[in-house]
Amino acid sequence: MVIRFRIQSVARQRGALMTELMVAMALLAGALLPLAYSLAKERQLARATYQRTVAMEIVDGEMEILAAGGWRSFSAGKQGYRVNAAAAANLPAGDFSLTIEPGKIRLEWQPTVKGHGGSVVREVAIK
């Protein structure tokens, strides 16, 4: 009888230990999954912010050239614009477009894929 009691006691202890282990694993997974999701979103936001910053630098630099008189070599209306900046290699797929209207010029970068920094637009009044 004593042996049977010890075997049941050990089996209960193992069962309780297994239950405690499962609860601990569930709590750990419940805490780590949101943290992993948060880190992934933070990484995506950082990439989009970087790409938007690069696009702003390029558009600002090109707009300075156009505002200084470079716009005169283009015809009126909306047209594609080609940039020579090496930093454009860090941008996702997108299009630069130049719009020349009476009294203003507008340079815009629009990414083709959503969530990559958004569009960047600069307008300058011309004489």
Question: Topology of this protein?
Answer:
Layout: H1 2-67, E1 77-80, E2 94-101, E3 104-111, E4 120-125
Antiparallel strand pairs: 1-2, 2-3, 3-4
Name some characteristics of this structure.
127 residues, single chain, rod-shaped, 1 helix, alpha+beta, 4-stranded antiparallel β-sheet, 52% helix
Structure overview:
By secondary structure, the protein is an alpha+beta fold. The protein has one domain. Helix content is 52%, strand content 20%. A 4-stranded antiparallel sheet has the order 1-2-3-4, with helices on one face. A hairpin with an 8-residue loop joins strand 3 and strand 4 (120-125). It is rod-shaped and about 100 Å long. The termini are far apart. The model has no long low-confidence stretch (mean pLDDT 89).
Strand content: 15-25%
What is the approximate shape?
rod-shaped
The end-to-end span amounts to: 106 Å
Mean pLDDT: 89
Number of helices: 1
Biggest β-sheet: count, sense, barrel?
4 strands, antiparallel
For the CA atoms, what is the radius of gyration? 30 Å
Order of helices and strands: HEEEE
Low-confidence stretches: none
Count up the domains. Answer: 1
Read across the widest sheet, the strand sequence of neighbours is: 1-2-3-4
Work out the helicity level: 40-55%
Structural class: alpha+beta
**Total beta strand runs:** 4
